[in-house]
Structures are given as structure tokens and as C-alpha cells.
């Protein structure tokens, strides 16, 4: 199945995101009046217990080592918005250099990861999952560090939840989000795996 990748990227660049309905049959573009951002500055925070886990070096980090496995992990839940069509879209976006998986590993076992789309200086987080406790949390911390090092301006987490709130996530009105997104899209950032 072929998808119009430029049109999909344009949708994200306008502040929309793709989701399947509950049946998994229909894909649609969605937007919200408020947007949740993970701060890429000193407002980003995480629990002291997680700092201890990170300092123990229990996980290694990789980008795009197991992209399909991360997508499958994110979709593997009772109610998912990641349908088979959306998996195929993510794969095409990945092949075109837009969709990425930021992963944690314990030895040869995938521990967790974050799935997202990078456009300019914006990283749009689509989902995250873990197989080993703390796997996705460490991935999130390491992803923020990586985005900072690559001069990204925006980490869009789309919708707030208690888990993201523990990391200092903030909700802003859509008009503020649109202004930040426009600024971020004007940057030329690369989410490559150099230095990870």
C-alpha cells in the first residue's frame, strides 16, 4: 500500500496527528485545543529513583535499531489507535527519514522505546512502551538529552497523562503550540544516531 508521504508530513506540520478509530478501520486527522509538551530545558524533570536506575547503566540506547518492534510494542494494548494501516504509514515515514524509534536495550532484549516523527526542529511523540520496567522512562530521558544535543526546539507529546506530568510536561493552548511549531519547523535538525 502506498501513502502520500508529503501530504502526511504536511498534516503533521500543520499541527494535526493521525489516529485510527476504535474499530481500527478508519484513520483520521485529529487536533486538540491544548497540546502537551515535554520541555527541552531545565523544566524537564524526573524522579530521583529513575536517576538511580540511569546511573546503574542497566540499559543501552539505540535509534532505529528495531523500528518495527517498537511500533508493534506501542500498538500492543487493549485499546490502540495504531491500526495496521497506521503501522504501514509509520514504516513508510521511517523509510523516508521522518519516523524514528528511540530505544532502550538490556543486552539483546528490547526493553522499551519511544515512537515519534521528526520534522525540522520538532519531534512529535506518537507513543511509548516498555517490556522491562523503567525501559520507556529511561528512553524518554535519553531522548530529551538527544533532542537537546541536536538543537531541537519542540517535543510534542500530544495529550497529557499522569506519567508525562512526572517529567514536567506542560499543557499550552493550541495558538501557542502553532507558533512554537512554526518556529521549530524552520530549523534543520537531524535525529541521527551519532553519539548515542
Number of helices in the DSSP assignment: 7
Mean pLDDT: 92
Largest sheet: 7 strands, mixed
Helix content: 25-40%
Flag low-confidence runs.
Answer: none
Mind sketching the topology for me?
Blueprint: H1 5-13, E1 17-20, E2 27-30, E3 34-37, H2 48-55, E4 60-63, H3 67-75, H4 84-95, E5 99-106, E6 109-119, E7 122-130, H5 135-149, E8 154-158, H6 162-165, E9 170-173, H7 174-185
Parallel strand pairs: 7-8
Antiparallel strand pairs: 1-2, 3-8, 3-9, 4-5, 5-6, 6-7
Search tags:
single chain; 196 residues; alpha+beta; Aminopeptidase; 7-stranded mixed beta sheet; 7 helices; 35% helix
Polypeptide structure, described:
- With 196 residues, the chain is of the alpha+beta class.
- The chain has a single domain (5-185), classed as 3-Layer(aba) Sandwich (Aminopeptidase).
- Helices cover 35% and strands 27% of the residues.
- The strands form 2 sheets. The chain has a 7-stranded mixed beta sheet with strand order 4-5-6-7-8-3-9, sandwiched between helices. It has a two-stranded antiparallel sheet with strand order 1-2.
- Helix 3 (67-75) packs antiparallel against helix 4 (84-95).
- The longest helix has 15 residues, at 135-149.
- It starts with a helix and ends in an 11-residue tail after the last helix.
- The model has no long low-confidence stretch (mean pLDDT 92).
Amino acid at each position: 500500500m502506498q501513502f502520500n508521504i508529503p501530504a502526511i508530513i504536511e498534516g503533521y506540520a500543520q499541527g494535526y496527528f493521525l489516529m485510527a478509530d476504535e474499530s481500527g478501520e478508519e484513520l483520521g486527522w485529529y487536533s486538540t485545543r491544548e497540546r502537551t509538551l515535554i520541555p527541552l530545558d531545565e523544566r524537564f524533570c524526573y524522579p530521583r529513583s529513575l536517576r538511580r536506575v540511569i546511573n546503574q547503566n542497566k540499559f543501552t540506547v539505540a535509534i532505529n535499531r528495531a523500528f518495527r518492534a517498537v511500533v508493534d510494542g506501542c500498538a500492543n494494548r487493549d485499546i490502540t489507535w495504531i491500526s495496521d494501516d497506521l503501522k504501514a504509514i509509520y514504516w513508510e515515514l521511517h523509510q523516508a527519514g521522518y519516523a524514528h524509534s528511540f530505544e532502550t536495550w538490556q543486552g539483546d532484549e528490547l526493553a522499551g522505546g519511544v515512537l515519534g516523527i521528526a520534522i525540522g526542529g520538532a519531534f512529535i511523540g506518537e507513543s511509548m512502551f516498555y517490556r522491562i520496567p523503567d525501559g520507556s522512562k529511561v528512553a524518554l530521558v535519553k531522548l530529551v538529552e538527544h533532542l537537546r544535543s541536536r538543537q531541537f526546539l519542540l517535543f510534542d507529546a500530544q495529550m497529557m497523562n499522569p506519567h508525562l506530568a512526572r517529567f514536567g510536561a506542560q499543557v499550552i493552548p493550541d495558538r501557542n503550540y502553532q507558533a512554537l511549531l512554526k518556529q521549530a519547523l524552520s530549523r534543520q535538525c537531524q535525529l541521527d544516531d551519532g553519539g548515542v
